[in-house]
């Protein structure tokens, strides 16, 4: 994030020294200034690609902020990694891996495809209990529970929300 | 059935008791160990869980009464304080401003107090047993909003999961050990039964000489084996006896009968028979009838038909009578016959039968000793013996000579019907006397020993 940080700080004419270690603040500023917000990006990607979104993240590439997506397409048995430029809205395919039919039968993907729960709905659910800015969302499985682990940026820092795919409801997280 | 099961090992295994006993043994061991471990679990972990539930309900009670008496902000503060201060309490309260407490969400599935329910939380476990924890809690609907309180039991959960793991490992071990010991035990027991089964099958296939192996343990199986062997011994003896009797009858009765038939044929050809011819034929018939009668008498004695009168019998007296009657026979072959009394012997018995058998023995001695030899009847304190200087009976024939119609002389050329020693044996048995043979270079003795 080095380059991005420099770019943003120069934009706002803030000294790096003042904000040393305050990556969250920088990130928040970056998102607030982005033309396309994460939620909008997710909508666009969901409309454009068939399949199911399983991951969302924010990164910088050569100094500009980008959104990263992972999409599972059971029709073609592939996992796509797609990148969108937060400024221009340009979308390109970063990586394409084939997913075996055996892997697709796993509980993780079965629930993603059949539970009716989507990344979008999970984020909405998460924001209901922790109002904040979306930073990251990931499909995970632990102890037989398949869930979206969502990180939201609040005024108190980064907060985690877990949304269970089976029930469509959050799982309480200690704080 | 037997041959089919031999061809089909799987079917044999299913029918065999080995599998059933092994499984039964394993099941019993599993149930016992399982219940023991379950009891341990119930008394340790179960008790601890009840304590946790109690803690949750007590906290909820006090929060419920607090909600009634305090304002919303005071209540909210109390909840936040509880969340901060208590390590055990996981509490979340849904106020108008959002979720308060140390959980970020209030799970809707938790039942109302006093019922308890469990739900997942994501927490940072101190012991690193995964991030997700199953906790038990309960819910109240206060006037300021719903509240869920649960016991933070990550340590307990870890302990419980270790216990469960230990439980499963123990059960697997018990299963393996149970199967192994059950298998070995059943195999050992059933191997012996199978041995007996095989022998009886062999016998029913006609091999009467088969015997069940007997170990030195002397347990129930050996007892059974012993009984079966004894039974087989008797069956073999009977079968052999029947075979012998059949062939003996064929020989002993066919020869005189054939002779008779030839004679009658001769008379027929000659157109008539003289008085002498008829007398000869009668003598032939008498021999046949005599053999029949002897066999009949023997059977009656053997199977204890008829009542025998037992009186005190003086064997010295009987011996003297036998010597008197047999002396002419001995003299005919220039043999000397004498009675030697070492001590008087009186036994309970049937005078007539004792005389018969003693006479039989003396008659045999005369018949099978060379000319000019010496024959002695010796009476002592508990036995009477007939001693001669003949060849006697070979040791290998000791058992067989008592069989009906058995003849030492296999060609059956010497006169006799082969029933003499059988009679001796039967009569001796009815007098509780045992028969033994004594042999040295000069003499052969048959001894009847009476029990006192």
Written description of the protein model:
The complex is a heterodimer of chains A (175) and B (452). Chain A has 175 residues and is α+β, with helices and mostly antiparallel strands. Chain A has a single domain, classed as Nuclear Transport Factor 2, Chain: A (Roll), CATH 3.10.450. Chain A has an eight-stranded antiparallel beta sheet with strand order 4-3-2-1-5-6-7-8, sandwiched between helices. In chain A, helix 1 crosses helix 2. Chain A is globular. Chain B has 452 residues and is of the alpha+beta class. Chain B is built from ten helices and twelve strands. A five-stranded antiparallel beta sheet of chain B has the order 2-1-5-4-3. In chain B, strand 4 and strand 5 form a beta hairpin. Chain B is rod-shaped and about 150 Å long. The relative contact order of chain B is 0.06. The N terminus of chain B is likely disordered. Chains A and B meet through strand 7 and strand 8 of A and strand 3 of B.
């Amino acid at each position: 994030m080095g380059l991005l940080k420099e770019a943003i700080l120069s934009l706002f004419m803030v000294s790096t020294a003042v904000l040393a270690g305050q990556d969250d603040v920088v990130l928040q500023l970056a998102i607030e200034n982005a033309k396309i917000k994460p939620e909008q990006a997710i909508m666009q990607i969901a409309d454009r690609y068939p399949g199911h979104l399983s991951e969302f993240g924010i990164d910088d590439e050569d100094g500009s902020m980008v959104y990263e997506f992972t999409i599972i397409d059971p029709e073609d048995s592939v996992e796509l990694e797609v990148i969108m430029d937060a400024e221009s809205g340009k979308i390109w395919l970063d990586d394409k891996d084939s997913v075996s039919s055996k892997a697709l039968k796993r509980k993780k993907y079965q629930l993603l495809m059949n539970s009716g729960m989507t990344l979008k709905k999970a984020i909405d659910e998460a924001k209901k209990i922790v109002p904040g800015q979306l930073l990251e969302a990931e499909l995970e499985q632990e102890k037989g529970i398949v869930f979206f682990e969502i990180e939201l940026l609040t005024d108190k820092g980064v907060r985690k929300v877990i949304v269970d795919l089976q029930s469509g409801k959050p799982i309480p997280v200690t704080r | 059935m037997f041959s089919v099961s031999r061809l089909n090992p799987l079917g044999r295994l299913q029918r065999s008791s080995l599998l059933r006993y092994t499984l039964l043994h394993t099941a019993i061991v599993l149930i016992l160990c399982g219940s023991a471990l379950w009891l341990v679990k119930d008394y340790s972990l179960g008790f601890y869980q009840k304590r946790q539930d109690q803690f949750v309900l007590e906290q909820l009670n006090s929060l419920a009464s607090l909600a009634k008496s305090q304002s919303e902000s005071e209540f909210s503060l109390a909840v936040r304080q509880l969340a901060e201060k208590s390590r055990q309490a996981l509490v979340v309260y849904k106020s108008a401003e959002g979720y308060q407490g140390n959980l970020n969400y209030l799970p809707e599935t938790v039942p109302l107090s006093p019922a308890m329910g469990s739900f997942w939380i994501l927490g940072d476990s101190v012991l690193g047993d995964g991030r997700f924890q199953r906790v038990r809690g309960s819910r109240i609907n206060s006037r300021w909003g719903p509240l869920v309180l649960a016991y933070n039991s990550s340590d307990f959960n870890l302990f419980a999961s270790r216990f469960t793991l230990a439980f499963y490992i123990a059960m697997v071990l018990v299963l393996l050990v149970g199967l192994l010991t059950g298998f070995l035990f059943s195999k050992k027991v059933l191997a012996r039964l199978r041995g007996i089964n095989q022998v009886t099958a062999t016998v029913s296939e006609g091999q009467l000489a088969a015997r069940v192996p007997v170990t030195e343990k002397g347990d129930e199986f050996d007892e059974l084996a012993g009984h079966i062997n004894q039974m087989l011994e008797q069956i073999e003896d009977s079968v052999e006896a029947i075979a012998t009797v059949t062939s003996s009858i064929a020989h002993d009765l066919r020869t005189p009968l054939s002779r008779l038939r030839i004679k009658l044929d001769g008379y027929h050809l000659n157109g008539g028979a003289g008085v002498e011819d008829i007398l000869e034929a009668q003598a032939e018939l008498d021999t046949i009838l005599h053999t029949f009668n002897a066999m009949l008498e023997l059977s009656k004695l053997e199977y204890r038909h008829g009542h025998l009168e037992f009186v005190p019998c003086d064997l010295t007296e009987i011996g003297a009578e036998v010597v008197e009657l047999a002396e002419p026979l001995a003299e005919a072959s220039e043999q000397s016959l004498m009675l030697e009394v070492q001590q008087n012997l009186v036994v309970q018995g049937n005078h007539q039968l004792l005389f018969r058998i003693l006479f039989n023995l003396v008659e045999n001695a005369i018949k099978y000793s060379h000319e000019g030899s010496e024959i002695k009847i010796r009476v002592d304190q508990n036995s009477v013996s007939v001693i001669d200087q003949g060849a006697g009976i070979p040791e290998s024939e000791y058992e067989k000579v008592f069989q009906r119609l058995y003849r030492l002389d296999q060609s059956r050329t010497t006169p006799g019907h082969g029933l003499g020693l059988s009679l001796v044996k039967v009569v001796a048995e009815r007098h509780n006397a045992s028969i033994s043979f004594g042999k040295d270079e000069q003499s052969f003795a048959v001894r009847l020993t009476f029990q006192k």
